[in-house]
Amino acid sequence: MRGETSDGFAEVAANGEDSEPQEIRTELPAFEELVLNIVNALSEQWPYMMANEYASHILRVLLLVLAGRPIEDQKNSKSAIKSKRSAKYMEDKNGAPISHRLLSEKRAVPESFGHALENLLSSVGNSMSDYTARGSTNSVVGSPVLQLMLELQETSPDFEKPGSLLDKCLMGLISDASANKTNPRRNAYIEMMVEDVVGSHFLQTVVRTASAQLFQIIYDQYFSGKIRTLAFHPISNFVVQSVFACAKNEQQLDHMVKEAGPIFGDLLFKNRPGVVRALIDSAVRLQSNPKNIIGAIYNGLDANTQEERNELINLLAFLIKYPDFVKADYNTLPFKIQGSLVIQSILQLSGDGQGPLLESVLSQDPTRMRSWCKDPSGSRIIEAILASMQVPTRTKRLMRERFSGHYSDLALDKYGSHVVDAAWKTADIAFKESIVQEFLQKETQLQDSRSGRIILRNCGIEYYKRRADQWRERERGLERKKHMFKDILGEKLLLNDNAAQTADPKAEAFETKAQSSAPKKNKRKTSDADEIDSLFNNTNKRVASIDLNGQVSHV
């Protein structure tokens, strides 16, 4: 109200002094204390807030903050708070991808957050009724919160105990399994969930977090003997992919392959190759023998003899059966994205798993392989061969030699330039120098091409022209570093050495001198991403490579 004063002002008025009044300061709580107070305030109303379309987002963010997880994890769409459309809008509005901001980073949190999270999940799980838990599994609003709670509780010793939150969500499946009881109502409930748009996502989280024992119970009761039907359902096929991708041991994987193997042909040619990929990815993760998987692929493609199997790379790339491939005109066959992804998964297999595919690749005409390099899907296949750590060095060398004399032509193509980069990163110094010599013959054409200019810079062409001996010494140094840290960093070091190549001060000096002598152009923004990808990202989106972390999501 007008005329009212604080104690400081009243004292000044009484004394008649003109001095400044003393400030009244209130001690503010620390952020840690604020978060813990929020947890205490919301814990009692947690089940009701899960069902609110606005409050549920707050609960998910609070759980992620307590766990120290990224709020916006763009690498894992399952855990993203924002939808892909919302993330794209924010990227366009702010001028930077979400993944480049602090929300995408994992944080170290106080120890009190861990205790608070454990107590919160325990108290909410114990207090939540069976009816509320089951209702949230199929709720568009509540299910994402419930899934996150289960993921955070996965390492808890009480996660799969009878009466736990997971047991309530599965209608007592864990309790009845320990007592060898059956429940027809529960069977109908979970079977309905498998084919539900929201419930299927919840089941994907369950099979991903379940132990081997619980996983086996779920598979035996709700998937075994039903793969042929579920794999072709528009919704349940994603759950099948998650089940296959999350096999806990080799015995479970072998059983899945035996059941799904006879229908590989239908899966490949009836728009369900993701199911096949999930089995291959599990074989990669478990390091199991993929012989049965490769045999099932042969049968699905009608490739029975050795001559027919030599065309395996073509049959998968174009997703076509051998009898149809023989009759078709090769030049008119279109690449299939799903086939390219299956090939990339096979290339991650170790030992004999990828052997038949590599033999098929090496038996192809080099002219055909060069034409693949200029196709968005075909170039991905060649890149995968050159980049895979499972592919023998000798095979990579043979692949690089097939493009000898044509690297300049490939560098001028926006897809072929990626193959050039992949070949450069795996080549020895002698082969790199042969590529540079080839570039020097067509340097003018390469300088006139956007992709060509980037390739020349990655190869250090200006540095080579002025100090060839120092260029070789620098490349030898990079090779020594790669071999030294190969066991620690693996493929990441082999595939990200472009930055190291331009780190040499002398090389940078020559590059700067060469650029200063050229006409000045407008500065362009740079990023840490692949520069060739960034150039063509807005005009032509390349085919996305397969995710090998066992995550399968609805599309």
List keywords for this structure.
single chain, 555 residues, mainly alpha, 63% helix, 0% strand, disordered N terminus, disordered C terminus
List the quaternary state of the chains: single chain
The profile of the biggest β sheet is:
none
The radius of gyration over CA amounts to 29 Å
| Shape, per Cα inertia axes | globular
Mean pLDDT: 82
Number of strands: 0
- The N- and C-terminal alpha carbons lie at a distance of 60 Å
Number of helices: 38
Structural class: mainly alpha
How much helicity do the residues have? 55-70%
Uncertain segments are: 1-14, 491-533, 538-555
The proportion of residues in beta strands is under 5%
Structure in a nutshell:
This protein is mainly alpha-helical and 555 residues long. It contains 38 helices and no strands.
Question: How does this structure look, described?
Answer:
Helices cover 63% and strands 0% of the residues. The chain contains 38 helices and no strands. It has helices spanning 7-15, 31-43, 46-50, 55-67, 84-94, 111-127, 130-137, 142-152, 165-169, 173-178, 184-194, 199-209, 212-222, 227-230, 236-245, 250-260, 264-269, 273-286, 291-300, 306-309, 312-317, 322-327, 337-346, 355-362, 366-372, 376-387, 393-402, 407-411, 416-426, 429-441, 443-447, 450-459, 461-466, 468-489, 491-495, 498-501, 505-517, 531-536. The longest helix is centred in the C-terminal third of the chain and has 22 residues, at 468-489. The model is unreliable at 1-14, 491-533 and 538-555 (pLDDT under 50).
